Each structure stands twice: as structure tokens, then as C-alpha cells.
């Protein structure tokens, strides 16, 4: 794991946005398109704000979430809503969006179709992950109902997930998809998450799902 510490959050968000854009740009030099997977939650908004204004051939960037809360897209907890408001606008409006959500009561109602769309975009070229204080990443929560299945190397690309720290049903990329990314970044803030991250390094993914990716990841941290 490579830990990159920043003097403050604002600087980190801007610098990380630049790094991600540079990686996408580099990838596009040798590939027809790039798959860019990003987290929801409260941390990445400022990264998205900066990214959306960066000059890049966004029309060849396919954006997807690492996980989604199964709520309508105009719900305050919808990660899709966050993306539309902060990332898929300005220059980045040209990006192709690969949804993890569809209009249905439960994720299981639409998962086959959503999963097929995700499978066509793999491997992920550039992956950005968040992490919770409980060491979950994407919607792979310790104690969630199908975590064990989602950690298997032959897990389907997308799975529904309930329980653990999740408030509502979730849909999430699974371990093989996250581990298969060409480049992996994790962004965290504050002393509590820093301590959790350090603990996770010595733990198994079943207890600390972020541990799945830590060996290969660059972790970006600011107080
Ligand atoms: O939908 C989500 O909740 C996320 O994708 C999730 O995996 C997030 O990255 C962590 O929960 C950290 O969330 P915060 O940034 O809000 O602390």
C-alpha cells in the first residue's frame, strides 16, 4: 500500500482529481475507451467538482459507481444524484454513464441487466474507492448478508447487499471486479478513518473488506 498524505483536504481533492484525469488520459492514449469507477457518499463531491471542469476526451470515458443505494434517483441518498450534480456536467457531461440503478422495487428485479452492462465495461481502468469507519468499501459491509459470496473470485460483477452498516438495500461491485482494476485509489479523511485503515491492513476482507485492495492501492489521506 502506498499512503499519500496531504496538508489539507482541499488540496487533496484538487490534486487527486488531477491525478485521476492524468491516468484516464494516459489510458486513452492506448485504448479506445476508459472505464472510470467512483464511490458515492459524502467524501468525493469536491473531487467530482474539479474533475468535471478538466479537459479530457470525456466522450471516451465510461463512468460507473462502485455501489449504489437502492433508492429513487431523486432521493437525497442516491449516489447517482450526486454524480449527476457534481461529475456528469460541464466538460464531463460528454462521458458515458453506466448505471447501477434502475426503476424497480428491489435490486434483484433488475440485477441481470445491470450486471450485463457492467461486465461489458471491464476491467476498470481507473478505480476510486471510499471507505467507512467500519472498513467497508463500495457496499461490501462487514456483517452484510452476502459478503462472503461477493468476496469469491468467481462472484458475479454486481450483487445486491443488505445489512451490516447499510441503511437501505445496496447494489455493489464485487471483489473480482475491484481487484481486477488496472489502477486503484482510495480516498479517506480524518483520524478515525486513518486508524481504521491501519487496522485493516492486518485483517481479512471478511472482517475488513477494504483489505481486498490495499496491497495494490494508493491511499490518499488528509486530516
Ligand atoms: O454509497 C456509499 O456509501 C459509498 O460508495 C461508500 O462505499 C462510501 O465510499 C463509504 O461509505 C464512505 O462514505 P463517506 O465518504 O460518506 O464517509
TrEMBL record:
Pfam hit, one: Glucosamine_iso
Alphabetically sorted, this entry's keywords are: Hydrolase
EC number(s) for this protein? 3.1.1.31
Instruction: Name its GO BP terms in alphabetical order.
Output: carbohydrate metabolic process; pentose-phosphate shunt
What pathway is it annotated to?
Carbohydrate degradation; pentose phosphate pathway; D-ribulose 5-phosphate from D-glucose 6-phosphate (oxidative stage): step 2/3
> Which PANTHER family does the UniProt record give?
6-PHOSPHOGLUCONOLACTONASE (PTHR11054:SF0)
Its protein name is 6-phosphogluconolactonase
Q: Which gene encodes it?
A: pgl
Amino acid at each position: 500500500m502506498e499512503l499519500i498524505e496531504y496538508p489539507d483536504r482541499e488540496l487533496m481533492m484538487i490534486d487527486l482529481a488531477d491525478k485521476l484525469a492524468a491516468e484516464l488520459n494516459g489510458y486513452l492514449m492506448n485504448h479506445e475507451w476508459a472505464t472510470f469507477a467512483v464511490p458515492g457518499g459524502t467524501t468525493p463531491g469536491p473531487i467530482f467538482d474539479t474533475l468535471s471542469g478538466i479537459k479530457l476526451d470525456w466522450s471516451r470515458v465510461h463512468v460507473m459507481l462502485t455501489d449504489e443505494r437502492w433508492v429513487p434517483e431523486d432521493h437525497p441518498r442516491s449516489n447517482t444524484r450526486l454524480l449527476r450534480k457534481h461529475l456528469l456536467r460541464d466538460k464531463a457531461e460528454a462521458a458515458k454513464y453506466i448505471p447501477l440503478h434502475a426503476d424497480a422495487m428491489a435490486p434483484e428485479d433488475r440485477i441481470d441487466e445491470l450486471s450485463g452492462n457492467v461486465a461489458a465495461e471491464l476491467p476498470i481502468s481507473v478505480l476510486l474507492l471510499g471507505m467507512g469507519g467500519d472498513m467497508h468499501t463500495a457496499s461490501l459491509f462487514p456483517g452484510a448478508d452476502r459478503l462472503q459470496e461477493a468476496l469469491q473470485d468467481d462472484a458475479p460483477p454486481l450483487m445486491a447487499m443488505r445489512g451490516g452498516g447499510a441503511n437501505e438495500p445496496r447494489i455493489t461491485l464485487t471483489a473480482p471486479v475491484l481487484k481486477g482494476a488496472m489502477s486503484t485509489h482510495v480516498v479517506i479523511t480524518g483520524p478515525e478513518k486513518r486508524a481504521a485503515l491501519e487496522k485493516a491492513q492486518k485483517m481479512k476482507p471478511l472482517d475488513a473488506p477494504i483489505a481486498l485492495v490495499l496491497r495494490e492501492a494508493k491511499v490518499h489521506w488528509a486530516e
